[in-house]
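[Meeting: bench + compute handoff]

Bench side (C.D.) handed over the final construct sequence. Compute side (W.E.) agreed to return the predicted structure before the next meeting so the bench team could plan truncations. Sequence as handed over:
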Amino acid sequence: MFSKKENKEIRVLFYTSFGRYMSNQRSLNGEKIKWLNYPTKIKDIHFKLHCDKKYASIFIDIQHKDEDIRKLFFDQFKELKKPFIQYVGASWSWEKEYKNEIGFNYSRIIRKINDVSIYDQNSWSKIFEFYKSNLLRLEEFWMNFDEVFKQLES
């Protein structure tokens, strides 16, 4: 078991290391970007990474406070499910109603790998490769379909 301070230090080291791992990876249009905070340019759609002691995940969170608008965005992703799968693969879970630990409702599209841990540095390379390959494929999808979501946003 790690203390709160040790846990924070491990997380900072993990995400800093991933940032360095991705530092030379340009976006598809050649721009330098911060992969940990991928710029979707849609206020309530976020690409996120999470790692804990049992698994690592990458997900799309749709966080609009208005339930109807959130569902509209999620339904638009569902409409694009076929090309989404062509770009990023089929092993994503689609959760129209996801409630976080403080009770806030999201919609979430998520992919996980099990049997890795943020506390096991030997598994970091596997996690980093999982993140990188999925972020790059997700970016390719997004660059082709982000305009659809921008139109919904306005």
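W.E. noted at the follow-up: The chain has one domain: 4-153. C.D. will use this when planning the next construct.
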